[in-house]
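Hi R.,

As promised on Friday, here is the backbone we talked about, encoded as structure tokens. Could you run it through your design pipeline when you get a chance and send me back a sequence?
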């Protein structure tokens, strides 16, 4: 007989949930397995039914080309090879949207034209070249104190951040708040943003072209905020802002430097709080990094 929640007393249930949480279990599963492949095949099938195409001239320009996902064909040796992409006139949500050169140019020009943080936010609000903005609900720009000595840069908003329009407000954000508090910081004394200001669908890792497209904005953001110390949270921010292929586990905890305009800013890569939620035993590494951060901030204050 299968036990249900009603068969377990509340204390035992709470202890069980705590055990799961501490073990890094953050997803609930159904008793019966769900065939996600079958589900997505059905969705794709319904999407591939022909839809009326709006007049291409009425689409305006986003600097993007819409590329219908190429069908996968067997290369004969077991590998998959793809047929050349088919260019279509109008982008549709179900299609992969690759930004054209104009979108990158637009991003650079818009970011460079911003002379204040408020202008940068407005520039991002007006930037239509990134496909992610079409699936996200809100622009997640920044939170905290833009005048702070320290600026934290994460990867991209998740579901909660997308709903609230604020970075790091979900579970990972709550852990970040506790980590900040542990070294005497808060959102009044730290500035917090992300590499990418729109939630990638399903919280997937942002694609390389999405990171490159948003790069001028985060680079300008750093120049305008002028922090004395930068902290990169996780792989995406660390690799991208430190221009390295090394992974976060080898980068973390080593002070580096990031150029921002004329300034060289001390920069510390560290583990992302979402990773720490999944790997609680690694919190000791993050703690060592945060102690080093505290020390550096104290030196700056004392100098
Ligand atoms: N993860 C991030 O990298 N950023 C957020 O804002 C939330 C989760």
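Update: got your reply. Pasting your designed sequence below so it's all in one thread:
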């Amino acid at each position: 007989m299968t036990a249900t929640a009603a068969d377990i007393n509340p204390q035992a249930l709470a202890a069980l949930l705590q055990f799961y949480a501490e073990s890094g279990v953050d997803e609930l599963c159904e008793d019966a397995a769900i065939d996600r492949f079958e589900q997505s095949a059905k969705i794709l099938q319904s999407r591939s039914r022909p839809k009326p195409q709006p007049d291409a001239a009425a689409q305006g320009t986003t600097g993007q080309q819409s590329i219908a996902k190429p069908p996968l064909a067997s290369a004969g040796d077991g590998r998959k090879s793809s047929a050349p992409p088919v260019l279509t006139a109008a982008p549709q949500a179900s299609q992969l949207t690759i930004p054209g050169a104009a979108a990158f140019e637009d991003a650079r020009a818009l970011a460079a034209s911003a002379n204040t943080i408020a202008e940068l936010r407005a520039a991002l609000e007006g930037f239509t070249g990134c496909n992610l903005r079409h699936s996200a609900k809100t622009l997640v720009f920044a939170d905290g104190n833009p005048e702070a000595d320290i600026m934290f840069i994460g990867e991209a908003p998740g579901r909660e951040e997308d709903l609230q329009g604020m970075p790091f407000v979900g579970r990972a954000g709550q852990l970040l708040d506790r980590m900040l508090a542990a070294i005497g910081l808060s959102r009044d004394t730290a500035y917090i943003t992300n590499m990418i200001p729109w939630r990638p669908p399903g919280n997937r890792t942002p694609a390389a072209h999405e990171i490159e497209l948003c790069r001028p904005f985060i680079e300008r953001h750093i120049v305008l905020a002028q922090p004395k110390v930068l902290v990169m949270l996780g792989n995406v921010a660390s690799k991208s802002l430190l221009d390295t292929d090394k992974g976060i586990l080898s980068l973390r905890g080593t002070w580096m430097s990031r150029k921002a305009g004329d300034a060289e800013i001390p920069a510390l890569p560290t583990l992302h709080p979402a990773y720490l939620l999944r790997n609680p035993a690694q919190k000791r590494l993050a703690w060592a990094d945060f102690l080093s951060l505290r020390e550096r901030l104290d030196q700056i204050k004392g100098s």
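One thing I noticed while checking it: The domain at 101-302 is CATH 3.40.470.10 (Uracil-DNA Glycosylase, subunit E).

Thanks again,
M.
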